[in-house]
Structures are given as structure tokens and as C-alpha cells.
Amino acid sequence: MSRSFSRAELESFRDAEVPDLLGGPADPPVRLLFVGINPGLWTAATQTHFAHPGNRFYPALLRGGVITEPVDAAAGMSEEDRARFRARGLGITNLVRRATAKASELSTDELRAGGAELVALVERVRPRVVAVAGITAYRQAFALPKAVPGRQPEPIGPAELWVVPNPSGLNAHETVESLAAAYAEVGRAAGLL
């Protein structure tokens, strides 16, 4: 059941953080780590990554076969949703931890610091594949202005590094179908499909 928030309620979550969704000791290892840019206000309000009702992340994962059960993220992931996600060897983090209304509110310095933190996280968690959702943020975070989407020539720590399309509804030239194809490709690379 989707929730709704007033603009004032959402604004109260500005600069809040959303914990990473990573497996614990009883979970299988993370095989595919998705990396968002930073939490939006709706994500911070629900404490669920990619939660805005217009975001196509979970529908695209389902369509691409990366997950097998639908997730109503706009209402906030249930503990069962989180457990199924971790059991599939999936994880989610962000380049920048603080929530904003728009990714354009982030500075290049914040993105660069987030890139360095991501490298450290990948060294610790050791996923097979890292998929950064958004080419512009990836270019800024890693000072690679000419990077193109897809598999990157250099790994990130022990992991294959991919840049996949951002699932935000603001990314109008992508569809659930095109996102599903990109997410299925990284799912296959991670050995999930």
C-alpha cells in the first residue's frame, strides 16, 4: 500500500541518511551491488532505496529477472522484501549518503568523496559486480568525463564495474524495458541469471 507525504514532510528528511542494504553474516555474499547517486527525500522518508513512486528500479529488476517477487518500494520495503533481496545476493548503496530533492544539489567534491568510500566498501564486501546507476554521477565521482555506459575497462577493487541507466522517472529516455535489459545484463555478469 503506497504512502503519501506532503512537501513539508518530505523536506523534513533533507540530509537524512538511508542505511545500505547489504547481507549480514547469515546471508549469502553480495554478488551484485547496485549504487545509486544519493537518496531522494521519498527514499529517506521510507528508508527504502529507489523508493519514489516514479522510480522504475524494482519493476525493471522484476522484468529483467533479477528479482522474482514485486516490491512496492514507495510504501517502504518490508522485512520480507529485504530478506529476499539479500538472499538473492543483491545489495544497494549510494555514492553520497545524504538525502536531497535532486541529485544536482550534490557537489563534485561530495561525489568524489563518495567514489573513494565506494572503493573501500567494495574492498570490504567483495561483490562480483558493481553497477552504478547513472553515467553523469559516475563520471564526476571517478573524474572520468569520457566514460560511457556499460562495462567499464577497469574493475573497482575485486569487482567488475558497470554503469547502468538511472531508473529515476526524470530519466525520460529510458523505459522499464530498456532498464530491465541493462539490469539483466549485470545480473548475468554477477551469475544471478
Please explain how this structure is put together.
There is one protein chain. The chain is an alpha/beta fold and 193 residues long. 34% of the residues lie in helices and 11% in strands. It contains 7 helices and 5 strands, in the order H-E-H-H-H-E-H-E-H-E-E-H. The protein has a 5-stranded mixed β-sheet with strand order 2-1-3-5-4, with helices on both faces. Strand 4 and strand 5 form a beta hairpin. Helix 3 packs across helix 7 and helix 5 packs across helix 6. The model has no long low-confidence stretch (mean pLDDT 94).
What brief labels describe this structure?
about 190 residues, 5-stranded mixed sheet, alpha/beta, single chain, about 35% helix, 7 helices
Chart the SSEs and their pairings.
Layout: H1 7-11, E1 32-36, H2 41-46, H3 57-63, H4 79-87, E2 90-94, H5 108-125, E3 129-133, H6 135-141, E4 150-151, E5 160-164, H7 176-189
Parallel strand pairs: 1-2, 1-3, 3-5
Antiparallel strand pairs: 4-5
Helix pairs in contact: 3-7, 5-6
Task: Please compute the radius of gyration using only Cα atoms.
Answer: 15 Å
Main beta sheet strand tally, sense and closure: 5 strands, mixed
Shape: globular
Run of helices and strands: HEHHHEHEHEEH
